[in-house]
Amino acid sequence: VMHLAREIMFQGLNIPLAILRPTLIYGRDDPHNGYGPNQFRRLANMGENIVLFGEGEEERDHIFIDDVAEITSLIIHYKSVGSLNLATGTTCSFKKIAEMTNLFSGANVAIKTVPRQGPVPHNGYRAFDITTTKRAFPQFSYTSLPEGLEKVQNKEFVKKKIRKVNNSQIKKLI
């Protein structure tokens, strides 16, 4: 409600306005280290177990920070106005994300689960409609989650020996 109220307030200013609504963002040097790709990657690279809520079955859309920057740049370049969901249109479970980050780190840490303290948020599934983004920027293509996770691993942990992962290993996870 707070976000919607803020959008309505800004729209009332009658100025050219682009409202960007990003889904969960992952990338290098993320400052908040929230549950998901950023936290899982860091835990694996420190040799610590990854802990999932429930069975990690919730499906979420995660967007690579470089894609957020590129879409934002396109919006500025074209002086676009309106509201835009910044999401890939593809969901992935937290369990699969943990498995991918573990694979890319090469650490092979344990993926553990803890019982939920409440109901599964968003009924376990939260996808976004990206039709507007595709229409506005048909030349833009999103970075797949496996590709983005590998890029971040290689950028953020450059001193760590990078493990080469082949496509068949990734396909087993997605």
Walkthrough of the structure:
The structure is a single chain. It contains seven helices and nine strands, in the order αββαβββαββαββααα. Helix 2 (37-45) runs parallel beside helix 4 (94-105) and helix 4 packs across helix 6 (145-156). The two termini are 34 Å apart. The chain is globular, with a radius of gyration of 18 Å. It has a three-stranded mixed beta sheet. A two-stranded parallel ribbon has the order 1-6. It has 174 residues and is α/β, with parallel strands linked by helices. The chain has helices at residues 2-11, 37-45, 65-78, 94-105, 131-136, 145-156, 167-173; strands spanning 18-22, 24-26, 50-53, 59-60, 62-64, 82-86, 92-93, 111-114, 125-126.
Summarize it.
This protein is α/β, with parallel strands linked by helices and 174 residues long. The chain has helices at residues 2-11, 37-45, 65-78, 94-105, 131-136, 145-156, 167-173; strands spanning 18-22, 24-26, 50-53, 59-60, 62-64, 82-86, 92-93, 111-114, 125-126.
